[in-house]
């Protein structure tokens, strides 16, 4: 993967949480941000009908999914 520098701004509280998370997970801030942005882009680019159906299933089975996650 070729890395490219870019500049942006972020809320101080979010940056502090990001730094703490990166350190706790033994990853760089760059790695965490890259993964988060990629996941976000994938999620928002799903077809609207599929997203709607997926959200409906998740809502309908939220209790079961929460129990399974434990």
Provide the fold topology:
Blueprint: H1 12-24, H2 29-44, H3 48-60, H4 62-69
Helix pairs in contact: 1-2
How would you describe the overall organization of this protein?
The chain has 4 helices and no strands. The mean pLDDT is about 90. It is mainly α.
Characteristic key phrases:
single chain; 70 residues; mainly alpha; extended
Structural class, from secondary structure content?
Answer: mainly alpha
- Rg from Cα: 16 Å
Fraction of helical residues:
over 70%
- Taking the alpha carbons of the first and last residues, their distance comes to 35 Å
Shape: extended
Mean pLDDT: 91
Number of strands: 0
Give a quick summary of the entry.
The chain is mainly alpha-helical. It contains 4 helices and no strands. The chain has helices at residues 12-24, 29-44, 48-60, 62-69.
């Amino acid at each position: 993967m070729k890395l490219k520098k870019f500049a942006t701004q972020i809320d101080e509280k979010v940056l502090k949480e990001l730094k703490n998370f990166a350190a706790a997970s033994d990853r760089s801030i760059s790695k965490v941000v890259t993964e988060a942005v990629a996941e976000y882009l994938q999620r928002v680019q799903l077809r609207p009908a599929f997203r709607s159906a997926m959200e409906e299933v998740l809502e309908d089975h939220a209790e079961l999914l929460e129990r399974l996650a434990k």
